[in-house]
Every structure is written in structure tokens, then in C-alpha cells.
Amino acid sequence: MSTIGTFTIRPLDPLRDAELLHRWVTHPKAAFWMMQDARLQDVEREYMRIAAHEHHHAYLGLHDGEPAFLMEKYDPRYVELVGLYEPEPGDVGMHFLVAPTDRPVHGFTRAVITAVMTELFADPATRRVVVEPDVGNKAVHALNEAVGFVPEREIDKPEKRALLSFCTREQFEAARGVSA
Is residue 180 very low, low, confident or very high in pLDDT (cuts 50, 70, 90)? Predict the structure, then answer.
């Protein structure tokens, strides 16, 4: 994966990054992001809301210095999964979106999710990453499994039927071939 390049992650600037994000979230490949009809102001408003939220954070992922993906991190005790499962200490929720491209690079999306997971587990307080992708998003289920996620069950969220899945630090390291 090292041949793919260098990934860095910075906090998202909702106003400065809104146009870029708008192109990404309204692209047909981002259908599961559920913002297909969003206007630029809608995207600005959503990411201003996230920026102001104590338990939800958005980041822009860069590939060799160029914007390449969006990462969101949230505390599932307060956001997204409230009342839908029993959170454990050290649980961190995650969403990610790879920017659409006309020149796909084999292995790129897997490298992105690996970078996202590495970033989340860089915080020693993170014990387990929680995801809740749409049950129909088979591509992301395969990616999640490739980095160590184990599906637990389907859950009903207000906007979708989701596959609740978990990945501990140990499962992520095992999937990467890193010995503890």
C-alpha cells in the first residue's frame, strides 16, 4: 500500500471546503451519503452543524497533499446510534467518503479506510470503531471486513436500514498483519 502515496488528515473547514464537499456528496457514487440533491448551502450548513457539535467531527483527508476523502468521527453515545446499541467505553463512530475520480487507482479506497482507521486508533482512548453503513452498500461491507470489522446485526435508523459492525484495535492490527 505504500506505493499509493502519503495520506494526511486535517480538520475540515466547513466554509472553505464546502464547494469541494458539495461536488463529492452530490456525485452519483456518493448515493449512500444521502445528499444527492443537496445545494451548496445545505452542505455548508450540515458541516457548520458538525463543526459546532461537541461529539461529531469532520476531517478532510489528503493524498499527497491533495483533497481525496472525507472522514467523520463521532461519539456513538450522543450521535447516530443513541438507543440503537449498548456503547462501550472507547467506542468511536466513523464515516468516510472517497472523492469521485476519473482515474481510479487499484487499492486506493482500501488504503483510505486503512488511513482512517490508523488515525482513529492513534488515540489510545479508542478501543473499538463502530460503523453503520446501509445494508445495501455491499462495497463498503467488503472494505470494512478487509480492515477487521465484524458485522453484529442489522438496525433500523431513521434514514436507513444499517449493518452495525465493530472493529477492535486487535482486529484491525490482525487484518493488517501487524502482530501485537
Answer: low
